[in-house]
Amino acid sequence: MRPRFFLFTDNLKDQRVKRFTEECKSRNIEVRLINIYRAILTDRVIFDENDEEIIIEKNDIAWALSNLTTGHFVAKKLKMENIQIWPNAEAIDFADKFFTNMFFSHIGIPTPKTVLINSYHFDKTVNKVGGFPCVIKKNVSTVGKFVEIVNNDSEARNFIKEAFDQAKNNILPLNRLRFLFQEFIKESAGTDYRVLCLDGKILGAIKREAQEGFKSNVSLGGKATQVEVDEKLREYSQRIMQKGKLFYAGLDFIKKGNDYLAIEVNTSAQFKGFEKATGINVAGKIIEALLKK
Ligand SMILES: Nc1ncnc2c1ncn2[C@@H]1O[C@H](COP(=O)(O)OP(=O)(O)O)[C@@H](O)[C@H]1O
Ligand SMILES: [Mg+2]
Question: Could you tell me if 246 and 265 lie in one domain?
Fold first, then answer.
């Protein structure tokens, strides 16, 4: 039977959905889109939004854009059934920024000093990263939404309060909500480097520059241009991909002096800006690589 492509997503307008669908069509691969926020997971079965059982066969391929509630369980279930999904059950840990920082340090990749916030008594904690001002982050978050610079206790408290308030409408992920302080790398402010990697290869890199503020996310107006992957970026990226057993990822770095500090692993990284800046058909390459796995 021909493999089918199961795409778990919460947003049908997401560019990845559009591009994967196009690339599957041109290869005659059937695509099934599943609204991951409406899917229901029992101990045996995943039901789609129409309450129909989703049956994924061994030679099918699956991709999941993250969902904090069901995401890692879907990945674990498919692993038990020996079905390929990306991000897989291990890679999904990288959605947590604190886990990711620990991982970088463990494998000898430079990363900004980072500490998990364990209570509202911030003083000893924040001293581990050099004190205020510093960066505060929600551990699971994207597009620069919950990353700020805080100057004192009350700003840190407000940040945490706001994150809890926003999460309230969606109570299930709350038990995964954590916060971290990180040293602010002033000299890198507004610029980061995204290296896109697939199946043991480096596809290329883009530099993102903020138009204002210190966050360079493209979704916040950061401008992307293609850059060379220098020796150091290549070595760091290869080590992260290999030690993390990562099939696909966008790796984010900021620069400090002549070195790079790794800040993030995006296992389902957007590639619209990258395809545009480089002319590389990322969606097509991902499908091909998944099929031959
Ligand atoms: N410690 C830091 N020092 C300086 N700039 C940072 C630091 N951490 C993040 N940034 C900037 O903020 C942006 C968003 O932070 P990031 O951790 O990647 O969160 P998100 O997952 O929301 O993209 C980064 O791309 C970078 O430009
Ligand atoms: Mg980022």
Answer: yes
Question: Amino acid letter at 231?
Answer: E
Q: Is residue 141 lining ligand 1, measured as CB closer than 6 Å?
A: yes
Q: Whose CA is nearest to atom 24 of ligand 1?
A: 215
Asked, for residue 134, whether it belongs to a domain, the answer is: yes
Residue 270 lies in a domain: yes
Q: Looking at the structure, tell me whether residues 192 and 180 fall in a common domain.
A: no
Q: Which of 215, 261, 265 to mutate to test the pocket of ligand 1 (most atoms within 8 A of CB)?
A: 215
Q: Which of 149, 184, 219 corresponds to the end of one domain?
A: 184
Supply the range of the domain harboring residue 147: 113-184
* Cα–Cα dist 148/220, whole Å: 13
Q: What is the full DSSP assignment across 77-94?
A: HHHHTT-EEES-TTGGGG
Domains of the chain: total? 3
Distance (Å) from CA 65 to ligand 2 centroid: 15
pLDDT tens-digit series, residues 108-160: 999 999 999 999 999 999 999 999 999 999 998 888 889 999 999 999 999 99
Residues 224-257 pLDDT 10s: 899 999 999 999 999 999 999 999 999 999 999 9
Q: Which ligand is nearest to the CA of 96?
A: 1
Worst-scoring range by mean pLDDT, 55-59, 69-73, 182-186, 210-214? 69-73
At which of 130, 152, 184 does a domain end?
184
Q: Which residue has the higher pLDDT, 274 or 168?
A: 274
**What does pTM read for this prediction?**
0.94
97 assigned to some structural domain: no
C-alpha separations of 118 from 5, 192, 221 in Å = 41, 28, 33
